[in-house]
Write a structure and sequence with these properties.
By secondary structure, the protein is of the alpha/beta class. Helix content is 32%, strand content 24%. It is built from 10 helices and 13 strands. Strands 5-6-7-3-8-9 form a 6-stranded mixed beta sheet, sandwiched between helices. Helix 5 links the parallel strand 6 and strand 7. Helix 2 packs across helix 3, helix 2 packs parallel to helix 4 and helix 7 packs across helix 9. It is globular, with a radius of gyration of 23 Å. The two termini are 20 Å apart. 38% of the residues are buried. The structure holds adenosine-5'-triphosphate. The site of adenosine-5'-triphosphate has 12 residues, from strand 2 and helix 1. Adenosine-5'-triphosphate binds next to strand 2 and helix 1.
């Protein structure tokens, strides 16, 4: 029997004037799952979270949390961190958490929450005097005072330094281990890959692919790559037994400073080194990488973006992507 969805969106549509924010977004999150929503700026992630948490009403479609409509659900079982959450700043971190804790009958001790978000020593500092990353961690803490069963975190780690980010990651992992259902949005693919049981990729207002990070990488991540930092032309590698090309747009390297060897096992890297040496090709570095969620993102979401900017008449390409999503 299929597990019952704790959070569910069915064919949600939402427009702001001419702007279509959601165009049939659907997803189902099971109890205890960590579900990460990824997608380009403007894809509709925040609007989807807002529709799921009852802060915006969809034009059509249905949102459900724990079997209820988002506006009818017991708020004490819900934690929501909006992207633009900005609490009153003339309070200390501790006072802020105490304030939010005061909204619930059976709230957690603010000191324990401060410790959870790695700010045990910063409780007496005024919110406005905290760094941006510390403020964000207090905001994450504010969503935890009621020990929610379902937690929505819209870009929880944006602006947080690497150590603080890891604190929040461990916190989310602990929450998930204790059974909390978590829906988060992020632009950090490493974050999604590390935390999420499943990932939903939003583009153009709908979920175009969903699945475990492993399945998405397997289905859409492409081949392993060996990147060679060299000015040599890919054609010069014609008799190498692997496909060689320039790096694609958007993959972090200027196309004429590197070539990419695809589908190559790490054990075969020595063959390529021998090949380079035998031909006196100059190179300054070799990097082997397996496909990851960033490759999936670039393959599916950025492709959608590029098509949209390259051509206004791209309806056919969108339907291809929607089909790719159906198989994920
Ligand atoms: N209140 C609003 N009024 C008008 N347009 C809006 C409003 N909220 C969202 N939009 C528009 O809807 C679209 C989706 O926005 P949304 O914030 O949901 O995207 P997002 O995926 O969360 O983006 P980001 O990654 O930048 O946070 C965008 O084009 C945005 O400009």
């Amino acid at each position: 029997m299929e597990a019952e969805a704790v959070v569910e969106a069915r064919a949600l549509e939402k427009s702001y004037g001419e702007t279509v924010a959601l165009s049939g977004a659907s997803l189902a999150v099971e109890a205890g799952e960590v579900f990460a929503l990824i997608g380009p700026n403007g894809a509709g992630k925040t609007t989807l979270v807002r529709a799921l948490t009852g802060t915006t009403a969809p034009d059509s479609g249905q949102a459900r949390i724990m079997g209820d409509s988002p506006t009818a659900v017991d708020r004490s079982r819900l934690g929501v961190l909006p992207q633009d959450f900005s609490p009153p700043d003339r309070l200390s971190a501790h006072e802020l958490l105490a304030y939010y804790a005061g909204l619930y009958d059976d709230a957690r001790n603010p000191n324990d929450v401060l410790a959870d978000v790695g700010l045990a020593d910063t409780g007496e500092t005024w919110y406005e005097d905290l760094s941006g990353g510390q403020q964000r961690r207090v905001c994450v803490g504010a969503t935890l005072v009621n020990d929610p069963d379902v937690l929505f975190l819209d870009e929880p780690t944006t602006g947080i330094d690497p150590a603080g980010r890891r604190t929040v990651w461990r916190l989310i992992e602990n929450l998930a281990a204790s059974g909390t259902t978590v829906v988060l949005t992020t632009h950090d693919m490493a974050e999604a890959e590390r935390l999420a049981d499943r990932v939903g990729l939003l583009a153009g207002g709908s979920v175009i692919a969903r699945g475990t990070p492993e399945a998405l990488v397997r289905d859409h991540g492409g081949a392993s790559r060996l990147t060679i930092e060299t000015a040599a032309d890919p054609d010069a590698f014609a008799d190498l037994e692997y496909p060689v090309s320039r790096p694609e747009r958007g993959r972090g390297r200027t196309p004429d400073s590197a070539v990419v060897v695809r589908d190559i096992d790490p054990a075969a890297i020595a063959t390529v080194v021998d090949y380079l040496e035998a031909r006196n090709f100059e190179y300054t570095g070799l990097t082997w990488s397996e496909p990851n969620l960033e490759d999936v993102y670039l393959e599916l979401a950025d492709q959608t973006e590029l098509e949209r900017t390259d051509s206004v008449d791209d309806a056919a390409d969108h339907s291809d992507l929607a089909q790719a999503g159906e198989t994920a």
